Amino acid sequence: MNSCLKYFSASLLALATQAAFAQVPALGAASNFALLSASPEGNGAVTCTRSTIAGDVGSSGLPSSVVQTLCTIAGAVIAPVSDGVVNDFLGAYSTLQDVPCDQTLTQAAYTDTTLSFSPGVICAPAEVTFTRTTLMLTGGANATWLFKIGTGGTGALTGTDSSVVTTGDACNVTWWVAQAATVTRGDFKGSILAGAADPATGAAITMTGAAPATPFEGRALAKAAVTLTDMAFVGCEAGGGGNVKGKGKCNQGVGNGPENCDPGNSNQDGHGSNPFGGARNTNDELGGKPGSPGRKGGNTK
Prior knowledge:
This protein is mainly beta. Helices cover 12% and strands 35% of the residues.
């Protein structure tokens, strides 16, 4: 009997673990990006002002669609991204739309309050606004949360001076938003997958901090433009969850290669200009001999 009880207990634990991990989106190639504007037909746009980004940045638009003003990106800037990246994001967004709910946000607005959520799928049928609100996520280190905003077809997410508190990985928190997501100050966390653009701003994700910078851990992936101002953004490592450390350096030489990692700072020479603005691109994608990522003096061509 004891062995049977142990078996069933282990089985239930395994099922619970599978259910928890099932809520982390399978982003495919889109998981490589901290910021991604995957607007179809090459209309992507990313604007970064007075911010830092630890992770890769991608846009479906031309190189000029990524605009940097006093913005530091510790990762690759890819524009345009491949059709595969766009399709993987759109596929993940569509899949999450169909995930059933097991908890419900009953109000359209929460102000000066603390909310507590166990792991699961938390849904709001329309828009939700958090103002000076703390979202306490209670669960183990591997627990996951999926917030779905606008499950009735329309709905935006607005978070102002609000925070997400979790003892686990910020990248195990996912926000699926039918329309736009706007985050202002606070200490928000998670991977935001946003849909339609806000008519007023033209962006599907808008994050605005307070000088010198407001922290954010997770991803900002959208069907339209992504805009950051005064933010210190730390992206997830590729693959869904995992520690929030930004992209690692693989130092493989020329190009990103099959492992889709940042090949390092082997082209930094302190001269020339970056076609995306700011300092010269430091990724080893400008030519040279593969396998020699430590070339002294960099590639100045």
